[in-house]
Structure formats: C-alpha cells, structure tokens
# Entry
Amino acid sequence: MKKLLIIISLFTLISCNHQDEKIHLNFSFKQEKSNIGNNVGTRLTVFDDRLVNDFIGVKEFCDDEKININSGGNLVELLRKEIDEQLLRKGFKQGNEKLIEIHIQNLKYEAKCGIFLGQSKADILVKVLVTNSKSNVTAVKNFALSMQSKHFILPLASTDANTINRLISEVVNDILDDDILLRSLTQ
# Structure
C-alpha cells in the first residue's frame, strides 16, 4: 500500500503545471598540454547554423504536457573561448596560418516520461573546416554523436543539463583529438 501511495504522489507531482527550462552550459574538456601545434597560428570561428540558436529540446511529461529546454548562455561564444584555450594548450598560437570554422548544424535533446522508466536522447552534429590560408587547401570533417539514457519516471533539470553538457564536451574532445584535423592544422 505504501508503494502505491508513493507512486500516486510522484505522478501527482509530475502532472503539475510545468515551466520551460533554461540550462546552464558549462562543459569541460580533457586536453593535456602539449607542443603538437608547433606555434602554428590559428584563427577559430564558430557558427550556429540551427534555426533557433538557444533552443535545445523538449521534455514531455506524463500528462502529455511539453516544455522547451533552452540554453542559458551563448553556445557559440562559449565554444569559441574554450576551444581557443585548448588549442593554445596544444601548442598553437593566435594567427592566420590556419583558419578553423566550426558549424553547429544540429543540437537536439528530448526527454519522455514513462510509467517507471523515462527516456532521454541527445544528438549533436558539427561540421569542421580547416583551411590553410597560404594554399587554400581545406579539410572538412563531420562529427556526429548521440546519447540515450533511461531515468526513473523523468529526468531532473540537472540531469538534462549534465547530459547536454557531456554531449558537447565529448564531441569537442573528438574534434580536438582527431588525427585528420590535427594533421591539417600542423602541415
């Protein structure tokens, strides 16, 4: 009987009126200091090619009510700043020898309520272009990453933020560790 009352209480809490979420973007990168960049000058530009730049996704509650999940900061500026710092840690410097463009083409998060297990899914698609300013040779690579999770009934707002920040961190680490891009930056 106690279990039934707990479950009914949880459904009552979940079915209350809900407001849109604003998540704090605070991703972290795990790049070690190195001299692989050999003081090659880089200039980084980040573009958000999505239709609505601060929209990240939706959360659907058990009563079919949906809320929007938006970013609480400027994703483009945060990525530019953090990736620039990581490039400096790798031995690159500010300059115009190599031009790097990062295009955020898709960033989408969905969370759905379930009887006992809810589900969430996050996707990101990023296109990276590295252009040698002297020879105009461009290397292009796409990075796509998906994450799926199961949660008790529905994820909390903090869980949504952790999942989205982890997704962004992992795709950026993939970009910074990619052999093809590093080769095009150092040649």
